[in-house]
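Progress report, Aim 2. The chain analyzed during this reporting quarter is listed below.
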Amino acid sequence: MPVYKAPVADTLFVLKDVLGIERYNNLPGFSDATPEMIEAIATEAARLSEEVLFPVNHSGDQEGCTRAEDGAVKTPKGFKQAYDAYREGGWIGLAVPEEFGGQGLPYTLHAAVGEYTSAANMALMMYPGLTQGAIAAILVHGSDEQKQTYLPKMVEGIWSGTMNLTEPHCGTDLGLLRTKAVPKGDGSYKISGQKIFISAGEHDMTDNIVHLVLARIEGAPAGTKGISLFIVPKFLVNEDGSVGARNSVVCGAIEHKMGIHGNATCVMNYDEATGYLIGAENKGLNAMFVMMNEARLGVGLQGLAIAEIAYQNAVAYAKDRLQGRALSGPKAPDKAADPIIVHPDIRRTLMTIKAFNEAGRAFMLWTALKSDIAHRSSDEKERQAADDLLGLATPILKGVMTDKGFDHAVMAQQVYGGHGYIEEWGMSQYVRDARIAMIYEGANGIQALDLVGRKLALNGGRAVMAAFKEIGDFCEENRANEQMAPFTKALKKGLNDLQASTMWFMQNAMAKPDNAGAGSTDYMHLFGLVMLGYMWAKMAKSAQDLLAAGDERTDFLNTKLATARFYMDKIMPETALRKTRIEAGSDTLMELAAEAF
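Predicted structure tokens for the chain:
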């Protein structure tokens, strides 16, 4: 059976030693996040994840969700009890303002905790995950009355939330949606239509479900310019805040999925359901994007989380499984064979995943910190700079972390050989669960197009130039440090490839847009390679400084340096491959007529 141990020491190293989170005590909520508080939160989140959420992960996958004829949905055995433990611990409101019942702590801590909980039980954690996205949208765009009506109970976790975008004929191109909203004359609307792929759309774990639904008000313009966002609760809310009559929204079916069986992915039918406009008319996408951007970061985190738990189990198996002898001679002469972890190809697999996970964790927390600065700093220039980098990093995180998260779950499964294909060993669940993260919240090809087609040129390229400068400055500052040479030289080479590819797009994509489309996925991964390399260089510098200062974590820090060297030697050179593919352009890709396929 699978195992899981939350990487607390690794998280604390990134937060304290690499990012220096204590330096941000001037930001609201950060002064409460003392080193002792951060360690206590991480430790308790680890305990919850390992002892409460993880034990019902495999069984939840096997049992799945069931729908009754009236549309009610039952979650797997033990899910409600585990959810209640999560809710009662106040985890949903960790980073939510105190005025709505939250704790007001940094979003960065929420992200750190989110890795543990998602690794322990991805399907279960999607229920509060969707709620947190809905909370974010209502916080930014909701009226005072809407905030007071919905947020306290959502933050407490006794009500949950969803996002309803996709329709049977309409995925990424939301301008095609048909769900309509008709004014009732009393400030509310009648919402009618069908939404599909709605995660956590119906379940038995909360007293109410607050759906955020995209719809077109009768007579609104066609396309995306005529889309509005509505709050459509499962149960209407009485004036005293209690749950009232059932609304005309029902789960018509549960999707039969490849993975995340413990999460109810629903077809939702709205039959003149009562809804309330959130934000301005025809500005629904603006409001929904608050939720979508939060969700995209959360999905990137899922890619990391599944790669981490898959890695941990592959390592445990590789240390235990006896097969063959080491090429350099027996390593366990007292046994019939050596454990497979001695074999170079197994090491290649495990080191690749390890290097990705540890740099990915740093990149995720670095980005979360940018979000905190963008939303909490009193310095306008500091807020803008952080928001620029946050916007740039979001599609990279979502696309790269989930692509690689799935790839690495498959690689971890491969370590098991035939056992990796057998359900009782648990590895196939991680492969199946990881696959959805590449698709939802905008398929990864869309993330790549967003990066190349929108983020690069935004504000005259201000964000990408800032990223290049930050990485370049780091390399220059450490150029004379011989110990850092293995890291800065490889990083600078990767940065050069990234800058050259960016320039190539500027010279070749305007006149021929297919060049941008053809190279976008390679560019997203090239950018990801450089950002992860930057994280490794920063971690290597911190490890070297700590060792020089006599830090007692000698083995831990030397392992960091060895993993950083592996990344720079074996993974960073892939930037040259990505650059070559980008510069090949779109001619051979677009040459065939559609009939030739």
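The two ends are 44 Å apart (CA to CA). The mean pLDDT is 96. These observations will guide the mutagenesis work planned for the next reporting period.
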